[in-house]
Amino acid sequence: MEKIKDKLNNLRAEAEAAVERAEAAEAKNKQLELTLLNRDQEITSLQHKLSVMDADLEKAESKLADAKHAHEEGDSAKSTAENLQRKIQILEEELDNAEKNLKETVDKLRQVDIKAEHYERQLQRAEQERDAMEKKYEETLEKYQKSKADLDALVTDMEGI
Asked: Which domain holds residue 42?
């Protein structure tokens, strides 16, 4: 009788531990999903930044081409040529800055992509752990219920003796 009570207590303890592990896995899963959502938003933001930078780059290249074209046609006034030269220099600097920003944005996007893949793998692992823990919990619960039924039958038999 004492062994059965001990076994029953052990099964209860195992069931409670399995429930706690399942809850912890679910909490971790939610946290990873939140992190993944944040990373997705960051990717979207960086993609938007990239498209804005591309548009700015195209504008700058267009202005540079226009300025070079005007320079090639050769305005007769020296002041106009100097103004165009300054504009070209400014546009080239803007183009260099835009290209640098574009490269940095692309690098950040790649890093975010790698991190997102990493978190997706972590999320999959956490979900697999949770599924395994839920299965073990169900098995333990089934064993507990069977043991309880056996114990109840034994108690009934003992009362009949």
From this structure: 2-156
